[in-house]
Design a protein that fits this description.
The protein contains 10 helices and 8 strands. The chain is α/β, with parallel strands linked by helices and 317 residues long. The longest helix is centred in the C-terminal third of the chain and has 33 residues, at 265-297.
Length: 317
């Protein structure tokens, strides 16, 4: 009997973890009774009642498992690490707030049975803020045009991944993994299933501006050269323009030396412009250096504090 693993990362989801657990178990037992299954929650150091609820769920059902991180390791490391810990023939990753519809699970498995090793959900619309959805659309289109590899628009990471692809992820040994880019760059032939993203069932989203910016910069530094190329081109163009302006001013001063006041304003404006350009691109280069630094340090994806309902042989080697 094949085994399906359902991975649900969570952080301060006390209002959702029990509901998502029951909904997934009901769907698996009703629509996919021919499969064995396990549910794995990986908690990113929640500060509310998420962990006590998970302890109770694990005590009630031995197929429900939990990994408790020692601290918050970020929105990318924790799910990626969880995918390496599951024991099923495939893993289905979903969020705890029901924004990845549970109804997609049978569709994912059906496509998997057809031979696809990667089946992903693609948002065709969303019940979230229209402004936020429009900004996300603009971001995806921009990254897709600038990236050196194919990028998947409106793909959040939710989907089914075959054990063969999990082994590919295990061999990468990347301390700052970006699953969306890895699926596009290294993944097998995939099937995309469209869906409308519903609103959160309960609670507040934890994706503030800083987290969204972090995700955007990770994709930029991992899959584009545009920041560094822009620094080169803009710097060269600015230098050329500055030289032309200097020559023009020199000629005008030589011709009309007695009635052409050069003044300080053009010089100050030029210095401020060039200074701001330099500072901006120093920041861009810094993002690339930060990404390199994180990869060179080779820190672990996650440090576990505790795991529940796992057998000793289930631990990643």
């Amino acid at each position: 009997m094949k085994k399906i693993s359902v991975l649900i990362p969570c952080y301060n989801e006390e209002e959702n973890v029990e509901a998502i657990c029951h909904a997934v178990v009901e769907t698996l037992e009703r629509d996919l009774p021919q499969y064995d299954y396990e549910m794995v929650f990986i908690d990113n150091d929640s500060r509310d009642q998420t962990r006590p609820i998970l302890r109770r769920l694990c005590a009630e059902n031995p197929r429900v498992k939990a990994i408790f991180n020692a601290r918050n390791f970020g929105q990318f490391n924790s799910p990626y690490y969880g995918m390496l810990q599951v024991t099923g023939d495939c893993v289905i990753e979903m969020v705890a707030d029901f924004q990845d519809p549970v109804e997609l699970i049978p569709q994912y498995v059906k496509a998997w049975e057809e031979g696809y090793k990667i089946v992903i959900g693609i948002k065709t619309s969303s019940k979230e803020s229209r402004v936020m959805y429009a900004l996300r659309s603009f971001y995806y289109k921009m990254i897709r045009k600038l990236s050196d590899v194919e990028q998947i628009e409106h793909f959040t990471g939710s989907g089914l991944y075959d054990r063969d692809f999990i082994e590919v992820l295990r061999k990468l040994d990347d301390p700052t993994p970006f699953l969306r880019g890895i699926v596009a760059e290294l993944g097998y032939k995939r099937k995309e299933i469209p869906y409308e993203q519903p609103k959160r069932r309960a609670g507040k989203t934890h994706n503030n501006f800083y987290r969204l910016y972090d995700a955007a910069m990770l994709s930029v530094t991992s899959y584009t050269k545009v920041g560094l190329r822009m620094a080169t081109f803009v710097g060269g163009c600015s230098a050329l323009i500055s030289m032309l302006v200097a020559v023009v001013y020199l000629v005008m001063k030589l011709i009309w030396w007695d009635r052409f006041p050069a003044g300080m304003a053009p010089m100050l404006i030029g210095m401020l412009f060039l200074g701001s350009v330099q500072i901006f691109f120093i920041g861009v280069v810094g993002e690339y250096i930060l990404a390199i630094n994180q990869r060179v340090m080779k820190r672990p994806l996650v440090v576990e504090e505790e795991r529940l309902n796992f057998e000793p042989e289930d631990r990643e080697h």
